[in-house]
């Protein structure tokens, strides 16, 4: 199962994602944690994203999508994930759909 939780800041996306993941065993993925982890590990994408994060700017789509695709390729996400804070725009959504389609997967759109 591949879920995306959408809503305004403070709407409860993170709370619901935690509950859903506890019940289903899905991996909870947030863009904030992706950025922090990539920067902490000094990955190539993390090094490129660091100046944006430090300045409080939005990280460019190509970096955000790259980090997300790296994350969902890990074995623990093979059975599914719940995304919180992604996608932020149509281009990010399309990039995710395209990447999953290449793997024969799709977001559950219900």
Automatic annotation (TrEMBL):
BP GO terms, sorted: nucleobase-containing compound metabolic process
UniProt cross-references to CDD domains, sorted A to Z: ADK
The entry's keywords: Kinase, Nucleotide-binding, Transferase
InterPro entries with a match to the protein in the record: Adenylat/UMP-CMP_kin, P-loop_NTPase
Keyword rRNA-binding attached: no
Keyword Membrane among record annotations: no
Cited PANTHER family: NUCLEOTIDE KINASE
Full protein name: Adenylate kinase active site lid domain-containing protein
